[in-house]
UniProtKB/TrEMBL annotation:
Xref: InterPro entries: Ergot_Alk_Oxidoreductase (IPR051604), NAD(P)-bd_dom_sf (IPR036291), NmrA-like (IPR008030)
Stretches that traverse the bilayer: none
Pfam families tied to this protein: NmrA (PF05368)
Taxonomic classification: Bacteria, Pseudomonadati, Bacteroidota, Flavobacteriia, Flavobacteriales
Residues annotated as domain NmrA-like: 105-234
Protein name: NAD(P)H-binding protein
Source organism of the structure: Winogradskyella echinorum
Gene3D superfamilies for the chain: NAD(P)-binding Rossmann-like Domain (3.40.50.720), UDP-galactose 4-epimerase, domain 1 (3.90.25.10)
Length: 278
């Protein structure tokens, strides 16, 4: 059944899974992405009206991150347009302990549109679908802050929560904090991935300066380096982020997925076995 639900970032890490959750309920949402039809491009406001036309509920993920310069203005403009076009409910994916993301949350919360904020800690899928995959494939994982405790959360859990609150108005006006069930370090994670994927990964504890220099040498674009440095200095070390919250259990009635379960499932897909030739 075609519906009046829009999933912005509907081919991304959480959006793709939100779409699947809705499809499992017989709902066919509109996908917001540059490759969808009608297309939606954060960098081209002319695409927004068609993408939002006729939409009543929407899940919003901003790309690449609510912390980057320009994100707040984009969320402000999108929220304003959504209200004008009659959108009744917004679910915004936000990041735990990010001041810039909280500014975006406030825009949605003060818009007059019904909302639920889904505020997430770092995703497990960063190790299989994002910036931590490449070092796993090379077998050499060099990261700073190797002993910081992080409640990594699974994108499947985030998506199930997001799809639930998108459809259920009893969560209107709430901030749902989604974390994994345990605090875990980078060192723990590399050990778990070594074991589950049957690889011998080397882990190196380096300084943030060495990490940044390494990214620059690899000619990673400046804005990506800026974002990763920001995430390490402001998000990772923020004590508010080093906590397990049980909102996933509250919404879904079951425990959040532990990292080991994600690692076993991901190892079976073979993604960590496609070893790069150096
Ligand atoms: N990763 C984490 O650990 C973490 C933790 C907490 C919060 N967050 C938040 O999660 C959000 C990202 O969500 P996600 O990880 O689910 O998505 P994602 O995988 O980062 O995003 C990819 C999606 O964005 C679309 N996209 C990329 N560039 C676009 C553009 N210019 N215009 C329109 N769409 C574009 C892609 O489709 P096309 O390429 O087809 O356009 C795709 O659907 C960020 O705001 C971040 O702050 C992330």
């Amino acid at each position: 059944m075609k519906t009046n639900i829009l999933v912005i970032g509907g081919t991304g890490k959480t959006g793709r899974r939100v779409v699947e959750q809705l499809q499992n309920k017989g709902i066919e949402p509109r996908i917001g992405s540059r490759n969808a039809s009608p297309s939606f491009d954060w960098d081209d406001k002319d695409t927004w009206v068609n993408a939002l036309n006729g939409i009543e509920r929407m899940y919003v993920t901003y790309y690449p991150d609510l912390a980057v310069p320009g994100a707040k203005e984009a969320i402000q403009s999108l929220t304003y347009l959504a209200k004008e076009l009659g959108v009744k409910k917004m679910v915004l994916l936000s990041g735990k302990g990010e001041t810039e993301a909280e500014a975006c949350e406030n825009i949605v919360m003060n818009s007059g549109i019904d909302y639920t904020i889904v505020r997430a800690s770092w995703f497990n899928q960063n190790w299989s679908e994002s910036f931590f995959l490449e070092p796993i494939l090379t077998g050499e994982v060099a990261l700073p802050m190797s002993n910081v405790l992080i409640p990594f959360v699974d994108a499947n859990d985030i998506a199930e929560v997001a799809a639930t609150v998108l459809l259920d108005d009893s969560y209107n006006g709430e901030i749902i904090e989604v974390t994994g069930p345990e605090l875990i370090t980078f060192k723990d994670i590399v050990n778990i991935i070594s074991k589950t994927s049957n690889r011998s990964l080397n882990f190196y504890d380096i300084t943030l300066e060495q990490y940044i220099d390494g990214m620059k040498q690899m000619q990673i674009p400046n804005d990506v380096v800026w974002l990763i440095e920001y995430l390490f200095t402001h998000v990772l070390t923020n004590p508010k982020n080093q906590l397990v919250v049980n909102d996933i259990e509250r919404v879904l009635g079951r425990k959040a997925k532990p990292f080991i379960e994600y690692a076993k499932e991901t190892a079976k897909t073979g993604i960590w076995s496609q070893v790069e030739v150096q």
